Each structure stands twice: as C-alpha cells, then as structure tokens.
Amino acid sequence: MNRRLKIGIILILISSAAVIAQQNQAYFSQYWVNGLAINPAYAGSREVFSVSMLYQRKWTGVEGSPTNYTFSAHTPLKNERIALGLFMVNQRYGIQKNTQAYLNYAFRLQTEKGKISLGLKAGASFINEDLGSLLSGLDDPTDPAFASVEQIYVQPNFGFGVYYYTPRYFVGVSIPDMMSYRLDTVSFKYKSSLSPSFYSYLVTAGVLIGKSDATVKWKPSFLVMYRSDYKAIRFDINSSFILFDDRLWIGASYRTGGSYPSPVLVGNMEVYITRQLMLGYSYDYTLGGLNNALNGVHEIILRYELGFKLKASNPRYF
Questions:
Q1: What was the pLDDT predicted at 84?
Q2: Mean pLDDT, consecutive 10-residue segments, the chain of 318 residues?
Q3: Which among 12, 48, 167, 251 is most buried, taking Cβ atoms within 10 Å?
Q4: pLDDT score, position 19
Q5: Residue among 127, 132, 133, 117 at smallest CA distance from 84
Q6: What superfamily in CATH does domain 3-306 come from?
Q7: What is the pLDDT, as a whole number, of residue 153?
Q8: Which of 6, 75, 3, 15 has the alpha carbon at shortest distance from 42?
Q9: Mind giving me the DSSP string for 91-127?
Q10: What string of DSSP letters covers the chain?
C-alpha cells in the first residue's frame, strides 16, 4: 500500500476519534466545580484565589481510553472588577497527546443582588500524534511507512462567556472554542475555521434552595450544550443536597443527547475537609448495557482556596 495512502487512512481515523474526544474533553461531570472548563467568565467568581486539580479517566474497560488531567487557578485582582485565570488540560487518547493552556480574563460589574462577568480566554492546543506506536499492531511491524512517523500540531483558540451570579443562583452562557479544526483529506493537514457552524453553545444555571442555617439545602443545576455542526443537544441535569453544616454535598445527574448513544447516570460527592479544602468524586454509569464494556468514567477533583475571607455563615455555593 502506498505510504501516503496508509498515513492518510490512519490520520482520518485519528481525526475522527479526535473530533469525538474534543467534543467532550473540556466538559466534565463536575462542571459546577470546574467552572473555567466551560466558561472563562467564571474567573474570580469564588472571590478568593482558588486552585483546583482534576483527574478524569473515561471508559476504563477500553485500552487507550481518554485520560484527562486539569489544573485551574483564578482570582479577582485588587481592582475587583478584573479577574484572571489559568486553565490547563493534559489529555491522552490512544496515540494522541493533547495539552491545552488558556489564559482567562473577566471584567465584572456589581449589580443590586450579584455580579455580572464578561469573560475571554485565549490559548492553544499542542497535539502530538505518534503513528510509530501503531507498529506493534501491524502484520508487518517493520513497515517503514509507520516507523517514527510523528505529527505535531499547534492549534490556537479563544472563547467567550457571560456569567451572572448571586449568593442564591447563577446563570452562564458561553462559546468555549470559537475556532475549529478539521483534517483536509487531500493535504492531510488540519484546517482552521471561525465559522459559527462549528460552535458549541453552552448554557448553565443553578439555584440554592434553603436558608443558610438550614440543616439540609438543595442545589439543582443544569447544563445544556448545542453543537452546530452535529445539530445535537446535550442535557445534563444535576440535583445535589448539602448536609452537615455544608461539609458534605451529595447528588446525582442525568445526562442525555450529544455524542452519548445512551443516557448516563452520574453520582457525585464533595467533602469539605476544611472550609478551604474540598475533595470531590463522581462516577458516570452508562445505561443500556454499554457500561459493561466501558466501565464508566471516574473523576476526582481537589480544590484549595487561599486568602479565605468568606464567613461560615455566608459560604459560596457556586
């Protein structure tokens, strides 16, 4: 088989997998904790210097399944109208490694009951595709067409978001990635596009039900994502209960639509070890029998907040 044709076929397969991965890689089950992943306007909304790390392992029953590591940090500045943030993702998906780094800027305005934030992010994805790692699966592992074939791409991107929040509820709208990349099957190179026909539009909202001194509080929230290119809508509805003087948050989500062939149930739990340190975990269970093959999705998140100034009687729930 012609070398160029072989590489082209594999790149097309990789590209298809990458598009699927990119559809989900920045959206996590614990989206209400990992807010910078979906909306740059979330920067500074904790009103302290907030640092978090997340580990996500998808489909543990599939060899080479996606693994994500994220790091985020954001804080308001001395001029409280301005907040800055940093969000980084390191993803491994089969033979592909994708490292993303984004700076976030938010301009915030005080309203009568809360704040409205306008956010921008800018950065890039650094993608490494190692075709040489496929040698062990070939009939002829010495085939020179695949030996030491390594593709490296840099894909700049930027996004926009609006976020309004009060102590009792929040609403956010965002376009996380305004540039899209598709593989050209003639040149075998990725081509960029700013066309809105490839945008993903996200809407999130949540509300706190119950007085601040109540024994049990309820925090329902939702995320809706619409992908223009696939004309697909994803719904993610979460219901969490806050217990034991806000120390334990426990809840569940129902997700359907988008790239998910079957509905997904998510169980989540956040434990506040101290008022500043939070440890969270979630598990995705795919309905319809697929979970037996995929073995679900695990997420672990750790958040620590410096310069803590929020009183226990007025904690921040979003």
A1: 98
A2: 45 43 59 91 95 89 79 95 96 83 97 96 89 57 57 90 96 94 77 88 95 89 89 91 94 83 90 94 84 78 80 64
A3: 251
A4: 45
A5: 117
A6: monomeric porin ompg (2.40.160.40)
A7: 84
A8: 75
A9: EEETTEEEEEEEEEEEEEEE-SSSEEEEEEEEEEEEE
A10: --HHHHHHHHHHHHHHHHHHHHHHTT--TTTTTSGGGT-GGGTTTTSSEEEEEEEEEE-TTSTT--EEEEEEEEEE-SSTTEEEEEEEEEEEETTEEEEEEEEEEEEEEE-SSSEEEEEEEEEEEEEEEEGGGGGGGSSSTT-TTTTT-EEEEEEEEEEEEEEEE-SSEEEEEEES---EEEE-TTT--EEEE--GGG-EEEEEEEE-BS-TT-SSEEEEEEEEEEETTTTEEEEEEEEEEEETTTTEEEEEEEEEETT-SS-EEEEEEEEESSSSEEEEEEEEEETTTTHHHH--EEEEEEEEEES----TTS----
Please give the structure tokens belonging to residue 261. 């062939």
Tell me if 16 sits within 8 A of 8, measured CB to CB: no
The owner of tokens 């997340």 is 54
Q: How many residues does the chain have?
A: 318
